[in-house]
Amino acid sequence: MTTSRSGSFWQKTSPFRCSYRSLGLLLLVAHTLTGCGQPAKPRIAGESPRIGEQDNTPSATQQQGDALGQDPSTVPEEQPLTEETPPETPEGTSETTVVELGESADTNPEGSGALCAEVGAVVSTRVRYEQAFSSDSCVSETQELRCVDNKTAQWSGTFTHADCVLAEVEVPTEIAPVVTRTIERRVAYLTATVPYGEVCVSEPQEREILDGVPQAWNGTHTFESCSVELPGDCATLKHGQYQLRTRYLSESSPAESTCVAEVQRQTCENGQLSPWSGTFTFESCTTLGKASCEGGVPHNGIDTQIRYQAASVSFGGTCTSEEQTRTCDDGTFSPWSGSFAAEACVVEAAVGCGGLEHEQGEVRERFEAATVPFGESCRVETQRRSCNNGTLSPWSGSYTENFCLVSPPASCGETGHLQTQLRTRYQTTSVPFGETCTQEVQERTCNNGTFSDWTGTFPHAACEVENALSCGETPHAGMETRLAYETATVAFGETCNSEEQTRTCNNGTLSNWSGTHTEVTCSVAAPADCGSLLHDQSETRTHYEAAEVPFGSSCSSELQTRSCNNGVLSDWSGTFTETQCVVAAAADCGSLAHNQSESRTHFATAEVPFGETCQGEIQTRSCSNGVLSDWSGTFIETQCVVTAPADCGSLAHNQSETRTHYATEEVPFDETCQEEVQTRTCQNGTLSDWSGSFTFASCTVLPAGP
User: Cβ distance 658 to 669 under 8 Å?
Assistant: First the structure.
């Protein structure tokens, strides 16, 4: 690189085409120091100089000094690149240059699964800077590498630069070697590793670089990286995993009670198992039982029986039954529920109706009217009645007449019923020469005094044939001739095919030319195209089998082709004819839309005994493309009621009565009879046992002795 002074600004040229403007302090991009002189030694992306090693890349100041004060033979040869002249810089001002040293390689790169033993654990720490270059101060932040899951980790923070350089370049006003002073910063660590759970201790350090010579780093820490050791495992458990067990408060529990248990946990913490949580110590617990009742019914089990309100009911009635229950309590049954006492019930037989037995019937025929007009039919209905337990039902139907006659038909004047009249009618009033008038015989028939419409469609009563006409200068039956060709053009190399044709005048109309050729001229031409489609080219289209398919189906399509052959398009291939196809929307079910559901509540029975609860279920059905599904569930009753409780004679349900009983029938003189007031209650037709334990209805105080 050569340096010269011209006028009031510095002019520098190099094979890297670098230029400076020294207007105060100007921060330049990173390649300024290595690009404006001898090319710097390549460095791997993200690599920074190891701690204790020196970056041997020549600085811009050293290169400028070499260019100004050393033997020209030592200056690198310039490359043949275009020389650029920088803007003017006022003479006598200083110039600041920022040196980029590159980012340090991450010791624990993002995504390192081997370091992630626990989610949220800090694997490593590092320091990053907001800017790689600064002219006043470097802003930094300490970032942590935390586990996202057991395979990946992610750095915190937003700063991205591993190094920050504060550099100053002094440029004298006189021609003299340039002195460069730069400050390099780094982060060093106290140790290379720390135990799990601790944090790496770091300190920011800096050193000066004078004329490209690095000075000693300040600070005491010497390690360029630091990582957190992995936590230890506990035999079959990894760090952070835990195991569970169940323990009980006691070994046994009284009847009708529940064993008290707790789930205890033990966790692996960096190679050490924690104590089990909780305080319960028994590994098992048994619930003690109570005695069963007769028939093997267990304690708290329920025995059932069916009883009827009456032993018999009249024909047509229904036997009313109830399911009664009793409960086993430690070997003793409670009283049966309910009030019905009959063990069986029968329905009495039905009574007949004279000669008809019960449910037998008889039939008869009756007519709607006694007479009907001609052409109509007598309307008859079969009526029925039946015997129901001694009573005949009314006759079915509404017709009341015992017989019916059809009236005779009427005539149409002199034409009798079903007789026919004839007439002749023509299609037109006249026809051209050589044609024949077209006629038809029409008829009409009398039907019960009314003629039907005339048959046929011709309206005219007469028709005549017109005279023959000429064809311009050619008279009727005259003939014309011409020379015609098979085609107007023929393919190259072929010959036009011609024929002599004739035509005849017939009543003003010329017949078609004889022969089959239709062209009046013919020329030989190249193969014709089909519009924009060239000869031998093909085109395609997509057609569908149907314009619409049902909901849930798919449109069936085919790719059709046709080709051009000397101006003639072939037929489209395939058989599908529709240009588009849509899938029909799903049908609704009345007010219920497709895929919507509705619900209802039905019950298992229409009635349940007093004290029980109606068992209901919510049933649903849904609409699928216009079809309603069956209701879910099995219950069929739309409502359910609980029967009223039964009384106990004159004592109503839930009412109680009292009595007084005594401990003994007699007591000695001067003592008092011990009494107690006992009660019993009516519960749905059943009286409870008397309360208390005294059994004597009366008590006498014995007289005094002699």
Answer: no
List 502's β-bridge partners, or say none.
481
How many residues appear in the chain? 706
Q: Please give, one letter per residue, the 3-state secondary structure of 218-271.
A: CCCCCECCCEECCCCCECCECCCCEEEEEEECCCEECCCCCCCEEEEEEEEECC
The label of the residue with tokens 């209701």 reads 631
Check: CB of residue 456 under 8 Å from CB of residue 427: no
The pLDDT of 265-288, averaged and rounded, is 89
> What single DSSP character describes residue 33?
H
Element (H, E) at 146: strand 140-147
Taking residues 186-196, report their average pLDDT.
92
In degrees and rounded to multiples of 5, residue 156 shows phi and psi of -85, 175
Residues 639-685 pLDDT 10s: 999 999 999 989 999 999 999 999 999 999 888 999 999 999 999 99
Which residues share a beta bridge with 562? 539
Six-digit token pair at 567? 């101006």
* Local structure of 72: helix, strand or coil: helix
Q: Please name which of 663, 681, 683, 682 lies closest in space to residue 673, comparing C-alpha atoms.
A: 663
Over 50: is that where the pLDDT of 94 sits? no
Tell me phi and psi for residue 364, to 5 degrees: -155, 165
Residue 86: DSSP 8-state? P
332 pLDDT higher than 60:
yes
The C-alpha atoms of residue 340 and residue 319 are separated, in whole angstroms, by 11
Q: Record the tokens describing residue 473, joined without a space.
A: 């200068």
Place of tokens 């079903």: 418
- Please name every residue paired with 146 in a beta bridge, in sequence order, or none if there are none: 122, 154
Burial 665-700 (b: 16+ CB within 10 A, else e): eebeeeeebeeeebebbbbbbbeeeeebebeeeebe
**3-class DSSP state for residue 63?**
helix
Integer-rounded Cα radius of gyration of the chain = 60
Mean pLDDT comparison of 236-250, 492-506, 547-561, highest-scoring range: 547-561
d(CA 162, CA 101): 9
Question: Pairing relation of β-strands 286-287 and 252-253?
Answer: parallel
Q: 674 near 700, Cβ under 8 Å?
A: no
Neighbours of 427 (CB within 10 A): 15
Q: How many CB atoms lie within 10 A of CB 71?
A: 7
> Which residue carries 């047509």 as its tokens?
316
> Nearest to residue 134, comparing CAs of 88, 89, 96?
96
Residues 6+ apart with CB under 8 A from 449: 409, 410, 411, 412, 417
Residue 116 identity (one-letter amino acid): C
Handedness of CA 139, 142, 148, 151 (dihedral sign): positive
Question: 3-class SS at 46?
Answer: coil
Distance CA 628, CA 600 (A): 14
Closest CA to 92 of 198, 8, 17: 8
Using CA atoms, how far residue 49 sits from 38, 43, 46, 54, 470, in Å, is 19, 9, 10, 7, 118
SS3 590: coil
Mean pLDDT in residue range 604-625: 93
DSSP calls for 302-325: EEEEEEES-SEE-TT----EEEEE
Residue 235 burial (CB count, 10 A): 8
Straight-line distance from the first to the last Cα atom of the chain, in angstroms, rounded to the nearest whole number: 157
Each residue's pLDDT tens digit, 49-82: 333 344 444 443 333 333 333 343 433 343 333 3
